[in-house]
Amino acid sequence: MAAMTLTEKILARHAGKASVRPGDNIWIDVDILMTHDVCGPGTIGVFKQHFGADAKVWDRDKVVIIPDHYIFTADAMANRNVDILRAFAKEQALPHFYDVGTERYKGVCHIALPEEGHTRPGEVLLGTDSHTCTAGAFGEFATGIGNTDAGFVLGTGKLWVKVPPTMRFVFHGELPPYLMAKDLILAVIGDIGCDGATYRAMEFDGDAVYALNIEERMTLCNMVIEAGGKNGVIAPDQLTLDYVNTRNRSGKPYQVERSDADARWIFEKVYDVSKLQPVVAKPHSPDNRAYVSEVKGTKLDRAYLGSCTGGKLTDFRAAARLLYGRSVKIDTFVVPATSEIAKGLKTEKINGKTLEEVFLAAGAKIGEPSCAACLGGPSDTFGRLNAPMSCISTTNRNFPGRMGHKQAEVYLASPLTVAASALTGNITDPRDAMQ
Amino acid sequence: MTATKRILGNAYVLGDNVDTDQIIPAQYLTLNPAIPEEYRQFGKYALSSVPPAMSGLPKGHIPFHTQDEFISDYKILVAGKNFGCGSSREHAPIALDAAGIEAVIAEFYARIFFRNAVNGGYLIPFECKQRLCDIVCTGDELELDIAGAVLLNRTTGETYELQPLGDVAPILEAGGLFPYARQVGMLKS
Ligand code: SF4
Hints:
The structure holds two protein chains of two kinds.
Chain A: H1 6-14, E1 25-29, E2 32-35, H2 40-51, E3 63-65, H3 76-91, H4 109-115, E4 124-127, E5 141-144, H5 147-156, E6 158-162, E7 166-172, H6 181-192, E8 201-205, H7 207-210, H8 214-222, E9 231-233, H9 238-247, E10 265-272, E11 279-281, E12 289-291, H10 292-295, E13 302-306, H11 307-310, H12 313-323, E14 331-335, H13 339-347, E15 349-350, E16 353-354, H14 355-362, E17 365-366, E18 390-393, E19 409-412, H15 415-424, H16 430-433
Parallel strand pairs in A: 2-3, 2-4, 4-5, 7-8, 7-10, 8-9, 13-14, 13-18, 14-17, 18-19
Antiparallel strand pairs in A: 1-6, 11-12, 15-16
Helix pairs in contact in A: 2-5, 6-8, 12-14, 12-15
Chain B: E1 6-13, H1 20-23, H2 36-45, E2 74-78, H3 91-98, E3 103-106, H4 111-119, E4 124-127, E5 141-145, E6 150-153, E7 158-161, H5 169-174, H6 177-183
Parallel strand pairs in B: 1-2, 2-3, 3-4
Antiparallel strand pairs in B: 1-5, 5-6, 6-7
Bound molecules: iron/sulfur cluster (SF4).
């Protein structure tokens, strides 16, 4: 049988085929469909329009609804949209609805999915959000779709996809303490451009990838969409399986896949991580890469730590290490991605102080778990750039208007670089803050 | 869409990497496209975050909406690389459709935008063989032959061959994912 990549194997199995090749158009079975408050109402509308007002979803246990985008706002339309999700979850008796204002509320969907045991190796996860690719860190095929596709999946559990060719990125060497997964993925995006992986899968491999913890691997896969990638994927190792097995409450079986040794790659690039430098993406595109050393000293108005990319416990641990016992010079916003991470801020300690205490003592403000200002949102959103200001952020996109104001300038960077910069008020190399 | 259909209309020209936040800014995503009145509203905000200097090339600073605040006078968008990159929001092709855009001609698309445009049946996403966003000017009168994949610029008299629609032609022809799935037996009618 023809050699296949991990992505090709998952797609072939979900299409009931022995093998597939890049470019094949196939119908696949979906294991999990996720939607949220921004795209859920439209998806539900499509579902009802085509399958009928009384139609039932194809499998209640495979539908996951996680409101996360516009949560802590007075905006009436935003709240109306959460009501639409609530009514749908009730009517369909959906077991996996993480409602706002309840114990179950989670926050950012891409982090909530693995935390709640909805990610498993070898599965197909589709979500109405482009960063659904984050879950590729668990060795599954995960990608973003629109309302029409999601409405179709709600009714049928199936969707057509075109099999993508796979690009392979191998990271070797020991990661220096001043670098994080965010630097690696910004380096890749800077190298191949924000259209460099269009219609393609991106597989990450190498000892430096397997030395990363699960959250850092999620950061790598999270930003493949910023290179145009269809999905990002890392083959599971024991760390992945341990994480998944602890969270997989349903005990649902799964099948681990790996790329064949002689699989066909459309592109291959090898990095020695010990030689990489801290990087930022300058305004207004994630591929507008510069070494921190080149933009050092650029004046900033604000620092932002949050989102599915940079709002995980690992990100806050790294930032807190630099902020410990010091004070920020500019407004600094800390937004945990999920309620579980928010709890972690209160329990994880450095030198006897919780992360929360470290951030507050440094003068940062801490918000409620949600997407918050990562995508701007209603004008009362925590941390939103409501004026043309300059911000350094651990988020994933810096297109014009992304975090609010059209003329705001956003620099994307690792949590270490953001924390180092918050301490000085201008772009700062984490190495300078580590001394 | 039928095999013989032509689209006649004026061009509105944009540059590279027009992302979904520029096409429909996030603050309007609270509108629900499943409600017709709210669907119409998207037309008003379409392309509202494109920087003014990049709006209506080559000169820029040309408003997308002129007489009507919801529907644009332009019917065909011409753009550069990676059109529709960014988020998976279907609100992006919906906003263009609501504003009266019938086709986009770009060098190439971000994957999810392309998919949403086709599967939702909102507009026809053609890819060009030359960099037409440097050649066509905003306001030029265009005639798009869909079946032939040919663009005639009536203002200059030039014609351009476009990339054939390929795999997605049958879906566009059926009118989107749902009618297509019925045709191929993936959905009972
Ligand atoms: S945190 Fe930002 S990128 Fe992630 S899902 Fe929310 S809005 Fe999207």
